[in-house]
């Protein structure tokens, strides 16, 4: 498909959604835990579902599972954006969507029971981590773009694991979304429908790559989100907080809220650091044992994350 035409279609689609969101008051109102201070249209990330639907409609034989799974998980997330749903309903739909994706990719045929359970935990964890980390302008779009660009390079230069267009459609959707979101005052936020649908798309791509290479090292393409989410959960447990309640303890939240660093700068920093990790993985994949790639990528990010506590203590002492 001509990508200029695709970009034009996506721009028109999101403009139509803006009119719908305006009419039905689908907005994000700031609260005490928000990283923004103004009312903004919510659900602009529906553009990811639209792009995925366009792609899979042209490839129904190979990607009907993606169309069904993506639609289910996006629908329940969009509903949750409009009217908050019980977590058990969301979780059940997430499991169904992931199961459909696993069936389509061939997970149940290629992995044993324990590996399949681990895969469920990883994908459901990724979906939730993406949702947790979507809190400032540009972070979901830029971080996704850094991963997708790494995946397109891997697909074209290292290992053919997916259809090129399947990745490029996600890249185009991210570019269109960033045009409206990567601003000092965003035109729209991704909403759950955006963060969850993009997480689902990236999960499918990563599972395709892992199954093709029989190597889970590619999960390191999510190192930054993984470390930030996991370490923040541990931090909240240490503070005896309910980890399912909203909070402002992610590293990016400390930088954006307490230190007032521009959202776009923080988001670009996260994406750039993840891109650097991706470059290291790509360069060393055939040069170094994958056993050593894990500590090489994860330990420095944990060290960076620990700077958060220095910043918190400094902020507390000055206030």
Could you characterize what this model shows?
The chain has helices spanning 3-23, 46-58, 60-82, 87-105, 107-110, 113-133, 139-158, 164-181, 191-213, 223-238, 251-258, 263-284, 290-305, 307-318; strands spanning 27-28, 40-41. The protein is mainly α. Strands 1-2 form a two-stranded antiparallel ribbon. The mean pLDDT is 93.
Distance between the termini: 55 Å
SSE order, one letter for each helix or strand = HEEHHHHHHHHHHHHH
Mean pLDDT: 93
Helix percent band:
over 70%
Q: What is the assembly state of the chains in this entry?
A: single chain
DSSP strand (E) fraction? under 5%
Number of helices: 14
The rounded Rg comes to 19 Å
How would a crystallographer describe the biggest sheet? 2 strands, antiparallel
Q: Would you identify the regions where 5 or more consecutive residues have pLDDT less than 50? A: none
Helix-strand makeup class: mainly alpha
Within the largest sheet, what's the order of strands? Answer: 1-2
What shape does the CA trace take?
globular
- Number-wise, the strands total 2
What is the element layout, followed by pairings?
Layout: H1 3-23, E1 27-28, E2 40-41, H2 46-58, H3 60-82, H4 87-105, H5 107-110, H6 113-133, H7 139-158, H8 164-181, H9 191-213, H10 223-238, H11 251-258, H12 263-284, H13 290-305, H14 307-318
């Amino acid at each position: 498909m001509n990508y200029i035409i695709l970009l034009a279609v996506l721009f028109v689609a999101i403009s139509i959604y803006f009119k719908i969101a305006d009419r039905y008051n689908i907005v994000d109102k700031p609260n005490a835990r928000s990283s923004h201070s103004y009312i903004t249209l919510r659900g602009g990330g529906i553009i990811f579902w639209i792009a995925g639907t366009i792609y899979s409609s042209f490839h129904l034989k190979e990607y009907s599972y993606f169309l069904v799974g993506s639609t289910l998980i996006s629908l329940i997330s969009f509903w949750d954006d409009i009217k908050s749903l019980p977590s058990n309903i969301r979780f059940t739909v997430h499991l169904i969507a992931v199961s459909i994706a696993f069936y389509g990719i061939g997970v149940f045929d290629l992995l044993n029971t324990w590996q399949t359970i681990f895969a469920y935990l990883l994908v459901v964890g990724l979906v939730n981590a993406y949702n947790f980390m979507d809190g400032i302008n540009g972070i979901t779009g830029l971080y996704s773009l850094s991963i997708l660009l790494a995946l397109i390079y891997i697909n074209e230069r290292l290992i053919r694991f997916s259809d090129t267009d399947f990745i490029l459609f996600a890249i185009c959707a991210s570019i269109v979304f960033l045009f409206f979101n990567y601003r000092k005052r965003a035109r729209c936020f991704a909403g759950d429908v955006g963060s969850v649908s993009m997480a689902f798309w990236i999960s499918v791509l990563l599972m395709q790559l892992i199954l093709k290479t029989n190597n889970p090292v590619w999960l390191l393409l999510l190192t930054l989100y993984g470390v930030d989410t996991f370490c923040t959960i541990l931090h909240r447990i240490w503070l005896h907080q309910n980890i399912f309640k909203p909070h402002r303890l992610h590293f990016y939240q400390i930088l954006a809220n307490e230190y007032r660093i521009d959202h776009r700068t923080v988001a670009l920093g996260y994406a750039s650091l993840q891109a650097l990790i991706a470059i290291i993985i790509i360069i060393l994949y055939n040069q170094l044992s994958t056993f050593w790639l894990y500590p090489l990528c994860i330990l420095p990010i944990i060290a960076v994350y620990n700077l958060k506590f220095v910043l918190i203590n400094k902020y507390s002492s000055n206030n």
